[in-house]
Amino acid sequence: xxxxxxxxxxxxxxxxxxxxxxxxxxxxxxxxxxxxxxxxxxxxxxxxxxxxxxxxxxxxxxxxxxxxxxxxxxxxxxxxxxxxxxxxxxxxxxxxxxxxxxxxxxxxxxxxxxxxxxxxxxxxxxxxxxxxxxxxxxxxxxxxxxxxxxxxxxxxxxxxxxxxxxxxxxxxxxxxxxxxxxxxxxxxxxxxxxxxxxxxxxxxxxxxxxxxxxxxxxxxxxxxxxxxxxxxxxxxxxxxxxxxxxxxxxxxxxxxxxxxxxxxxxxxxxxxxxxxxxxxxxxxxxxxxxxxxxxxxxxxxxxxxxxxxxxxxxxxxxxxxxxxxxxxxxxxxxxxxxxxxxxxxxxxxxxxxxxxxxxxxxxxxxxxxxxxxxxxxxxxxxxxxxxxxxxxxxxxxxxxxxxxxxxxxxxxxxxxxxxxxxxxxxxxxxxxxxxxxxxxxxxxxxxxxxxxxxxxxxxxxxxxxxxxxxxxxxxxxxxxxxx
Length: 483
Fold this sequence. Notes:
The protein is mainly α. 76% of the residues lie in helices and 0% in strands. It has helices spanning 8-25, 29-48, 66-95, 101-123, 127-145, 151-186, 195-201, 207-225, 233-240, 243-269, 278-295, 302-323, 325-357, 368-371, 373-386, 393-408, 410-435, 451-465, 469-481. The longest helix has 36 residues, at 151-186. The mean pLDDT is 88.
């Protein structure tokens, strides 16, 4: 095959949506689960090929640059490992009768549709198309959160849908305002929506319109990022939906909205008369971090606990990008990648634990390292990583965030470190009771694949000890792009 005839961007979009159509009609669980894994692997390989193959030039709809490759590759990697975890997890749900075969066909089709929506959001050069793609990804996850059809699951899905809709309406309004700001300069029609054209002419746009637009975009996409006080949907969606969806929500969907925010942040930075987006991002980031850190102490459900941990980490990431500058942006990117890998690994562990114990209540789970050493120590490693202890990857990124903040805004660094220590205390407190002590609950063996969990944790460990030079150079380049 001629390498020039292969289009990785088309593959990243067509594989998931084509497979989704196929999965919707195929019967049988084993076949659909395997097809889901195969399609996710193919998408991941297509994403990796973006590094090797010459990138397509930016068109009116598609853009591939250094910034979105980070997101596309991370997205397809976690999508692939989650599909492996999902296969064994959902098989168990089927055996215990929590899910019916009819819902399963729907589940796998929705999984691939969601991957399509997220990838489309990343590669779109049109801010309107990006909005539509985020909406597709959101709606599919709403449907998957409610798949158990229990009262609590449906309530969580509706809550997510209503709050997500308010957020997406704000984001739409912000997108329209950006178009209105662009129209006098760029002209009528779709050119006013094309990202590459907008950034070229951004310096001439009406700053007042851009300011209002960014506030709406920040509130709209910020709801999806799960920033406090716009986070209310997130703990419910994590706790009530299937665990693979919790892993995807925490590891991926929050990043899609973050990506949209970063695109608009770059746009605003290109206009010298517009407000600086930094202070708003710093404020909301710190607020989310400290709020989530306090909330961690009150959680009784293990999936809700880690949902609040996601709010905390998205706060840190938004804070880092808000501080800006080469070092903080680098730290924000690294933290985002490390959080996605670590948090999804934690949810893989939690998924297997809740299936073995038949509960998500923290007080009913004890002594995991005794009864299920692989799972118990996997969870311990995940929590050690997520609290930012060395030598794992998050220590590296948190250290960079804190040191760049100390250099630029020492007072903010104090609040940041306070939030980090608070969260550290809460997670270690909860972890010691779950992982150690007198075993409690069922001790049956887990019929599950531990490969995805340990693959993620080993990547995070390697990144904490040694980051390959090409990755460092590439991240530094992206950090300068972000301004």
